[in-house]
Amino acid sequence: xxxxxxxxxxxxxxxxxxxxxxxxxAADLPTISIGIKFDQPGLGLREAGGRFTGFDVDVARYVAKxxxxxxxxxxxxxxxxxxxxxxxxxxxxxxxxxxxxxxxKRKARVDFAGPYFVAHQDLLVRSTETGITKAEDLxxxxxxxxxxxxxxxxxxxxxxxKAYITEVGGYSECVTALKxxxxxxxxxxxxxxAGYAAQDINQGKFKLxxxxxxxxxxxxxxxxxxTELQTKINAALxxxxxxxxxxxxxxANFGAVNFKHEPAPAITEGS
Length: 271
Ligand code: GLU
Prior knowledge:
With 271 residues, the chain is an alpha/beta fold. The protein contains 9 helices and 13 strands. The longest helix is centred in the last third of the chain and has 16 residues. The radius of gyration is 22 Å and the shape is globular. About 4% of the residues have low confidence. It binds glutamic acid. Glutamic acid binds next to helix 5 and strand 11. This is Glutamate-binding protein. Keywords: Signal, Transport.
């Protein structure tokens, strides 16, 4: 059989495309990398089977869809409280949805869309604890929080400067230490703490102190100066609230948890 040169090239191309798993429609369509937490039940969690769940994950998926990315085109990347700005500055992710409080210090390095949620700093203690009822009680206690979080900074600079605070990489490490009685309390946003308290493996072990120690407005972090993306994400967030998806996700993720959430906040970033 005589095969023309052009025919041979076409055949090889088909072979290569098939071998690399690139079907016609799967090829060339862009993906989007989104930074989320992997260890915060109710907000951003990578479950044992690899499924991603939580309110932040729902928000990320909704926004991605509005930007034109179906679920199979999303690449979730793990971010830690201490590396969110860097992940954005180095283009590791397009945006970050990770219990990320908007504040001036962070806004020097990144921009935010939103806010899309309001949480308050609180404490998680063992259910037998009776000695912590207000922020000042913490001054003689061993606390745990996460490096790069507003929670740790608020304790050090404002709430209880004399407290001994251990800073770790992720909040789940604090939960383990608290369970093993190495520490007296862990501190971060109530939405995060409620998620841990409600986990099956933690049933009956912990309680929230119920203090509202700060206002934490969650924003979607994005690269500084990308006002076009900021405008698009703000529009997506408004739509998520208007069409009821926001409320539905909040109920699904925090409903079973003994946690009363704030209503959706007005969007103020970029306007
Ligand atoms: N919302 C706080 C922050 O952005 C605490 C939660 C977290 O570390 O992700 O620092």
